[in-house]
Amino acid sequence: MEPDVVIVVGVSGTGKTTVATGISTRMGWTFAEGDAFHPQANVDKMRAGVPLTDEDRAPWLRRIGDWISEQVAEGESCVVTCSALKRDYRDVLREGRPQVRFLHLHDDMELIAARMAARKDHFMPPTLLPSQFATLQMLGPDEPGVVVTVRDDVPTVIRNSMTALGLTPPDPAGEEVLA
Ligand SMILES: Nc1ncnc2c1ncn2[C@@H]1O[C@H](COP(=O)(O)OP(=O)(O)OP(=O)(O)O)[C@@H](O)[C@H]1O
Ligand SMILES: O=C(O)[C@H](O)[C@@H](O)[C@H](O)[C@H](O)CO
To answer: Record's InterPro entries (predicted)?
Structure first.
């Protein structure tokens, strides 16, 4: 069977890591944290409160794409986080990888800013959130995937995301335990 690939996209703080790990656990898929593929210079820049440019993001997107290709080559279904704010970035991730679908987590800036403010030990400062929204191009109806609101609690957002993507956990009893 063809492996499934889900890329969880959206602005910083929208819950990509939280939801992607939830899907990975429930589905038994491999998971990668997109932030781990940033060159150190990108992390330093974001930590200093400076938004990344297209040039900064290019090597990062390539690395994430390479990781996905490795999973597919091994027949592994996978879920990976990557803000992929622009359609061009998502096109890079999809190019040559027909399995890719996007889960775009989204809500208004006020809600996400509050969650970022409460989050500890993360390099991304909440001051960068307005630039994330300014750069964001919403997932288009002609792109593969779904848009899900993140207003609900974590188990509900994970459940809504999986339903929207048509994903059923191999062991349905597992979901209650994890929720
Ligand atoms: N549905 C939710 N309800 C309440 N809090 C949430 C929800 N989803 C995520 N959070 C919290 O919001 C914060 C941001 O979530 P998370 O780190 O998963 O976002 P992210 O999109 O991966 O961020 P980044 O792109 O900056 O790495 C975390 O502290 C997380 O625990
Ligand atoms: O494209 C970007 O501007 C960045 O990559 C960010 O979105 C971060 O990777 C991440 O969200 C940090 O928390």
So the answer is: P-loop_NTPase, Therm_gnt_kin
Residue nearest to atom 10 of ligand 2 (CA): 12
- How confident is the model at residue 154, as a pLDDT? 98
pLDDT in tens, 83-93: 999 999 999 99
**Residue 174 scores a pLDDT above 60:** no
Distance CA 46, CA 15 (A): 18
Q: Which of 11, 12, 17 to mutate to test the pocket of ligand 1 (most atoms within 8 A of CB)?
A: 17
Domain layout of the chain by residue ranges: 5-168
Answer yes or no: are the C-beta atoms of 94 and 137 closer than 8 Å: no
Taking the whole predicted model, whether its pTM rises above 0.90 is answered as yes
What is the phi/psi pair of residue 105, to 5°? -90, 130
In this prediction, residue 172 carries a pLDDT of 60
Write down the architecture of domain 5-168 according to CATH.
3-Layer(aba) Sandwich (3.40)
